[in-house]
Amino acid sequence: MAGEDAGVARLAATVERLRRELRDTRTAADGRALLELAKGVLVERLRCGPAQAARQIELLAGQLDSTPLEVAAQLVDRVAGDTLSVLPKQSTVDDPAEVVRSRTAESAVLAAEDSRRAAESVLAYALTPLGATTVVIWAAGGDGSLTLAGFAGLAPEEAKRWRYVPPGVDTPAQRALARREAVWIEDLARDGLPTAGQRCSPEGGRAAIPARLGGRVLGVVEVGWPKPVAAPAPQVRRQLESLAELCAHTLEHAPATEVSWAADLADLADGLPDPALVLRPYLQDGQLRDFRIHHVNADFADPRGRPREAVDGALLLEAYPLAAGELFDRIEHVYATGESLRARRMRWRNLAGVTVVADVGISRHGDAVLLVWRVEDEPARLAELLRHAQRLGGVGGFEERIGTGEITWSQETFAVCGLDATDEPIPLVRLPEYAHRDDAVAIERFLRTVFERRHPGSVAFRLLRPDGLTRHVKVVAEPVPDAAGRLLSVRGAYQDISAQHWTEVALSATRDQLTHTEQHAEEQNRLTLRLQRAIMPDAQPPITATGLRIATRYRPAEEEQLVGGDWYDVVVLPSKQVLLSVGDIVGHGIQAATGMVVLRNALRGLAITGAGPARLLTWLNLVAYHLTDEIRGTAACALYDPSTGVLRWARAGHPPPVLVRDGQATSLPLLPGVLLGAFAQTCQEEGEVRLCPGDRLLLYTDGLIERRDQPLEDSIEHLLSVAAGMSGPLEEWTDHVLEHSDANTVDDTCVVAVQVG
To answer: How far apart are CA 607 and CA 600, in angstroms?
Structure first.
């Protein structure tokens, strides 16, 4: 047993001897590299040969009573003039041993075959005198991750545990990578950050320094101390940054690969359908100063109108000075960290310095950066919204060019007529072939109005579709002449009015049946009133939606035969915004009731597009003017965004809403807005107000305020006084406003009361 122990001891001693010899061999090799570097300095300065330079070093060593290695380190140190040999405060810069260690570390790192050997050299020669016990070299990934590339002072098992750090994990190295600056942790136990080597020294200090090269952050060098350490002096911090830059050389790609990346990116950019630039870094004194435009693709258009050749090869900030700022900072961040940028509908200050909405992509590939952008086409977006609104309303547009016979239909027009998008459109002059024979006379009269008299016209007829269905369709057309009065084209729209037609037929049939006797007339009034009250009940239970409490009231006219067209609506849209609206159709009876249904439902459909109140009322005016029979009316429309508390509103000939805040009642501004259906083209303005908790908003129709014997302004003042004079629950407050209204007309009244919070 004793013999076995002796054998193990001899084996351990042999292993330790071999390790020591290996360290000595590596140290000697590192010393030789430093000597060779010093010889090269003398060859260049003295214009002598290598043998003469070696003899000169030996001579200087003898004269200075130093070793050749110390002389070599002093020579390199004085020639380099960098910050690598800056020592901590307790040392002197002229200490030969410290200079030897710093310069030996430099030569060893530059000669290292991998990052692990570089970490060992940095720790052995430069950081051990500073009290450090561990060095970890992390390689940065393009996604913000870290991979352990080299280490010294860590147990192999510990290194395996930390071979990869995913993006988003908070460690000292991740912080240094994200901030692109050195991070100093005085005490890991106090800060609670996980990192490699923490098991051995849970209370130690850490320094994490970005490993930069040519403006890029290729990784992070993390230095560890076994005990808490105060923040270093500036000269030590500069020394650590110089060592990190040395370590970056072991993480750098070969230059040939970078050139290949730039060439490949140029080919990729030429295949993109969007403007793209390939950029290469422009360095001065080892620092990133700008980017050179390596390649521009065929879709790139210079904002100043210069040819692409004038931009290709220029410096980015010289060609586009206004790109300095946010855009340059983003490109520099991607180049430095390798983290790609992908942003949709981003407010972007482009190369010309103009802020636009665009999809932007920036990515680094080797030593090159690819910048791609796509500016949002606002007309195309509005066209898509309009197409969506046309689909909801069953409306499709068309244009026929007289000279060429070319016919253009929108997608919805094919759907209305029951055709596929690949079918040939139907010319207006051939409409009688596709219509019921009883409608041929009306269509011929419509065609004469448009083509011969050159006036706008419309016609409703029964369309016999190829799929076998018969639909009631309305066509509106308008001739377009040139400056000389010759007919250039005809534009218009098709609308499927089948549902409206059968509603009108049913109402008309009811009306015809009940007009023979007084009893029938009274029955008609009762049916009309039922229709109105089915859509607009006298009162509904309070509605609670997205932070609002809403109460609605409908007060019918005192005389049942005077059924009006007052309406209200409260809808929570898919966007979580709340649509609030009230309106009043001109007139009474069946026409007013059906007009109310048309506009109320049309506004609901248009609101799905996400348009603002002013745009909604502009479109609603088009519906009232072109797609209905003489419907006129007023309306007020508001959209409340619960995420911001902002209420946007607009009016079309309607009284403005009333806002009650802190016991004071005021009318919102009287924005411009004309009667719906009065003119073909109108332009409503939009107002905006931020609602606060406790605020109340009142939307109403004019039946609440109209008096025959006093001006409208006096009636509104009375309403404001009534609204401010009571502060009970919302439902009681709403009833109070209705009860104390001094209106003396026989009109209907609709009220929508809203309370925030």
So the answer is: 11
Whole-number Å distance between alpha carbons of 299 and 327 = 20
DSSP state for residue 430 in the 8-state scheme = G
Same domain, 393 and 365: no
Comparing CA positions, the residue from 293, 268, 271 lying closest to residue 280 is 293
Strand partners, 499: none
Q: Which run of H or of E encompasses 54?
A: helix 50-64
- Spell out a b/e string for 705-723, using b for 16 or more CB atoms within 10 Å of the CB, else e: bbeeeeeeeebbebbbebb
The pLDDT assigned to 88 comes to: 37
Q: What is residue 252's DSSP assignment?
A: P
d(C-alpha 605, C-alpha 386), whole Å:
12
CB atoms within 10 A of CB 635: 30
- My answer on whether 657 and 728 are in the same domain is yes
pTM score: 0.36
Same domain, 687 and 567: yes
Q: Last residue of a domain, which of 376, 408, 434?
A: 376
pLDDT tens-place string over residues 183-226? 999 988 888 888 988 877 778 899 999 998 877 888 999 999 98
Q: Do 567 and 667 have their domain in common?
A: yes
Of 638, 603, 607, the closest CA to residue 621 belongs to 603
Q: What domain range includes position 309? A: 255-376
Indicate whether 553 belongs to any domain.
Answer: yes
328 part of a folded domain:
yes
Where is pLDDT greater, at 649 or 102? Answer: 649
pLDDT at position 112, please? 57
Same domain (yes/no): 364, 418 = no
Cβ 119 vs Cβ 136: under 8 Å: yes
- Confidence (pLDDT) at 639: 96
Cα–Cα distance, 400 to 398 (Å, whole number): 7
Q: Domain of 691: which CATH number?
A: 3.60.40.10
CA distance to 604, 647, 649, per residue, from 579 (Å): 8, 10, 10
Answer with the one of 326, 361, 376 that is the final residue of a domain. 376
Record the tokens describing residue 71, joined without a space.
């002389």
What phi and psi values does residue 698 have, to the nearest 5 degrees? Answer: -125, 120
**2 is written with which tokens?**
């004793």
The reply to whether 687 falls in a domain is yes
pLDDT per residue as tens digits for the range 449-473: 999 888 999 999 999 988 888 888 9
CB atoms within 10 A of CB 180: 13
**Token output for 132:** 């450090």
Paired residues of 451 in beta bridges: none
Q: Mark whether 573 and 687 lie in a shared domain.
A: yes
Model pLDDT for residues 219-254, shown as the tens digit of each residue: 999 999 989 888 888 878 888 888 888 788 888 753
Rounded Cα–Cα distance for residues 286 and 10 (Å): 53
Do both 435 and 555 map to the same domain?
no
CATH number at residue 271: 3.30.450.20
Specify if 482 maps to a domain: yes
Average pLDDT of the chain is 79
| pLDDT tens string 605-633 | 999 999 999 999 999 999 988 888 778 99
Q: Is residue 705 within 8 Å of residue 662, measured between CB atoms?
A: no
4 contact partners, CB below 8 Å, separation of at least 6: none
Q: What gap in Å lies between CA 680 and CA 178, rounded to an integer?
A: 58
* Residue 605 phi, psi dihedral angles, 5° rounding: -65, -40
The string of DSSP letters for 171-226 reads -HHHHHHHHTS-EEES-HHHH----TTTTT-TT--EEEEEEEETTEEEEEEEEE-S
Greatest Cα pair distance, the chain, in angstroms, is: 137
Judge whether 368 and 388 are in contact, CB under 8 Å.
Answer: no
Q: How far apart are alpha carbons 316 and 279 in whole angstroms?
A: 8
Do residues 314 and 391 both lie within one domain? no
Q: In total, how many domains does the chain have?
A: 3
